[in-house]
Amino acid sequence: MITEDYVSLEIAELLKEKGFDWNCESNRFYPEPDYDQESPDGVYAPTLQTAMKWLRNQHNLHIMVDCIGSKNYMPTVQFICNSKDIKVESDKNKIGGNGFDSFEEACESTIKYCLEKLI
Predict the structure, then answer these.
(1) DSSP strand E in 1-119: where?
(2) What is the DSSP letter of 10?
(3) What is the dihedral sign for C-alpha 101, 107, 112, 117?
(4) Which of 8, 12, 21, 74 is paired with 29 by a 20 to 30 Å CA distance?
(5) What is the pLDDT of residues 55-106, one digit of tens each?
(6) CA–CA separation, 41 and 34 (whole Å)
(7) Which domain covers residue 105, as residue numbers?
(8) What's the gap between Cα 35 and its chain centre?
(9) 110 domain-assigned
(10) What residues does 74 pair with on adjacent strands?
């Protein structure tokens, strides 16, 4: 069975702050600490893939994660100016140093990097 990987509450809040407003039926809901069932207030979190797609479609930021060895996932971000001009905006040292133990961890960290440093 496939399970969806959602962004963390921290990333969900950053996405909301940066204007993420896509209506995703499969969003996870992070309620506020004083959540009241009568007046729901909180943050909806998209999947990692939806967040990466939003960054690509709205901000021309393309996240790629390569596996280079056992449990060493290395992310990069490219700013796509047009179909022929690709400029690398970040490298491994800016995002993750020696890499990450999982694909999902690399994606989450790179989404955070884009939201905090590139938008």
Answers:
(1) 28-31, 42-45, 61-67, 73-82, 85-90
(2) H
(3) positive
(4) 74
(5) 999 988 888 888 776 667 777 777 665 544 444 444 455 565 667 888 888 8
(6) 9
(7) 9-118
(8) 25
(9) yes
(10) 66
